[in-house]
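Researcher: Sequence recovery benchmark, item below. Answer with residues only.
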């Protein structure tokens, strides 16, 4: 599809209405703006069409024989087609329940078939604007991914190796000089921080890599968490770990690398908040048939209300107990969870501790990220 071409797919089982919409949207005025209109007569045909090509805006009838509009939405999400399509639902009824169900299913807008067709234009144009913003976001993320990968590789690889070797050589030559030995120690601490930053940049690159996102495999959530908790305990011997594993927790479909990194970063953050010791509680539970929730609760310093909305932003770091991080760990955790169609939330009180809740769909594409568990 050409960069300036805008494709609309009309999906409706009523021939007269479908042809009327196609004729209206295919007139010379819209064609001059790069609009291209395609049509299918059923949900089955629409899915087959989307697997061959892509469209910017889909006008999808909610009531059709065979696969209705809601089922098409569900299958689009399962096939990872929904995130790249601006879906406007069509209905001859327009009842509130249809609107709510469509939006929860992943649709972006909703129109009543009885509305004049010229009133649909602003909604379609809004879909084109959404696509342009999505393309810009993808371009910015790809540039960020390449930057993080290259900078992380350069700093954490050759540069770190050469500097470490030079510092070790200098340390042997200044042995016995307290001031020089202290300087070498400080340089070593700075190098260690640089290496951690380089590693975090590598994790950012993975989180932004779409090819990594879909390397799904069945994962035993308890086994994954148990291994990370054991590693956490070695580094935080003063923190007591309490496990509250839920029953009948099904396997999670996902990327092992991304989910391990997400939970590792969340545990690391909890440990930093409890530098003087405390209790870490890990809790898992089912939420309906489609979702699993994981609570990571610490008894640390807590997060001020004005800060809670910022902690998952890239580059944000504010540790009042002096345990400052790179500002990338929580961003990577959030991004990796969202790559799986999940969500991450935080509740906290200063001086009492923090609870981070991760919600993940049981099956990849099994539920809409925007749906309420």
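Model:
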């Amino acid at each position: 599809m050409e960069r300036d071409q805008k494709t609309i797919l009309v999906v409706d089982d009523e021939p007269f209405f479908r042809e009327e919409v196609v004729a209206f949207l295919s007139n010379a005025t819209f064609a001059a703006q790069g609009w291209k209109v395609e049509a299918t007569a059923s949900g089955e045909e629409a899915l087959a069409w989307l697997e061959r090509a892509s469209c910017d805006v889909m006008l999808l009838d909610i009531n059709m024989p065979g696969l209705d509009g809601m089922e098409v939405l569900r299958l689009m999400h399962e096939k990872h087609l929904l995130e790249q399509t601006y879906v406007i639902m069509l209905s001859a009824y327009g009842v509130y329940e249809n609107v709510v169900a469509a939006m929860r299913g992943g649709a972006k807008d909703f129109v009543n078939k009885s509305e004049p067709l010229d009133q649909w234009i602003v909604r379609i144009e809004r879909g084109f604007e959404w696509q342009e913003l999505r393309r810009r976001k993808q371009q910015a993320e790809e540039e960020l991914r390449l930057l993080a990968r290259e900078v992380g590789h350069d700093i954490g690889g050759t540069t770190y190796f050469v500097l470490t070797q030079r510092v070790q050589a200098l340390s042997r030559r200044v042995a016995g000089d307290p001031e020089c030995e202290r300087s070498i120690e400080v340089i070593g601490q700075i190098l260690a921080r640089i290496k951690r930053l380089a590693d975090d940049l590598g994790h950012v690159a993975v989180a932004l890599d779409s090819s990594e996102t879909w390397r799904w495999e069945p994962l035993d959530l308890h086994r994954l968490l148990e291994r990370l908790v054991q590693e956490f305990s070695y580094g935080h011997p003063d923190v007591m770990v309490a496990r509250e594993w839920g029953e009948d927790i099904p396997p999670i479909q996902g990327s092992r690398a991304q989910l391990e990194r997400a939970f590792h970063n969340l545990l690391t953050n909890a440990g930093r908040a409890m530098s003087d010791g405390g209790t870490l509680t890990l809790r898992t539970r089912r939420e309906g048939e489609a979702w699993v929730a994981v609570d990571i609760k610490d008894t640390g310093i807590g997060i001020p209300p004005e800060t809670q909305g910022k902690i998952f932003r890239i580059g944000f770091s504010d540790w009042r107990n002096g345990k400052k991080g790179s500002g990338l760990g929580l961003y990577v955790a959030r991004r990796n969870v969202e790559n799986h169609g999940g969500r991450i939330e935080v509740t906290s009180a200063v001086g009492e501790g923090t609870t981070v809740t991760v919600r993940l769909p049981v099956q990849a594409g099994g539920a809409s990220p925007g749906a309420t568990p």
